[in-house]
Amino acid sequence: MLNDIYNKRIIELAGNIPRLGRLPAPDATATAHSKLCGSTVKVDLKMDGDTVTDFAHDVKACALGQASSSIMASHVVGSTASELRELRETVRKMLKENGTPPQGKWEEIKFLEPVRDYKARHASTLLTFDAVVDAIGQIEAKAKQPAAAQG
Question: What's this model's pTM, rounded to 2 decimal places?
Fold first, then answer.
């Protein structure tokens, strides 16, 4: 039943999203959009080497996208690029391949596990993870450019 995915914790997370807004000078900005439901998440990211040092986001999404974004914003600072790529893959597998939810600081993602039964909701749930990984890729690509090309 659809009510299962909109459980009390999802509603709490969606109603209390930290780090809303935009960063004044992000290292990268990425937007993820779900054509199916119209949800959009735009993230601003700052990194020092491989580690996220600052994060902000603009979330125009359903409760599931908001809850995912809330969890991301609560734990992303201090996370590494590889950790965040692995997290996105873990959440994707949780939704699409009956994988287990992540553990540790990301364990609240378990509250999104019932979404696996509603394929139409997968995209909005994954938006924040896709946008963060996209932003990391942009930052890494810039770091590989010669200094003269970074203008």
Answer: 0.93
List the beta bridge partners of residue 135. none
| Confidence check: pLDDT of 148 > 80 | no
Topology at the third CATH level for domain 8-142:
Sufe protein. Chain: A (3.90.1010)
Where is 2: in which H helix or E strand? none
Q: Please state, in angstroms and rounded to a whole number, the distance separating the CA atoms of residues 75 and 27.
A: 18
Average pLDDT score over residue span 55-68? 97
Phi, psi of 52 (to 5 degrees): -70, 130
pLDDT of residue 94: 98
Neighbours of 127 (CB within 10 A): 30
Cα separation, 117 vs 140, in Å, equals: 35
Alpha carbon distance, N-terminus to C-terminus of the chain:
53
Four-point Cα dihedral 72, 14, 127, 122, nearest 10? 120
Q: Where are the domains of the chain?
A: 8-142
**What is the sign of the dihedral through the CA atoms of 98, 99, 104 and 109?**
negative
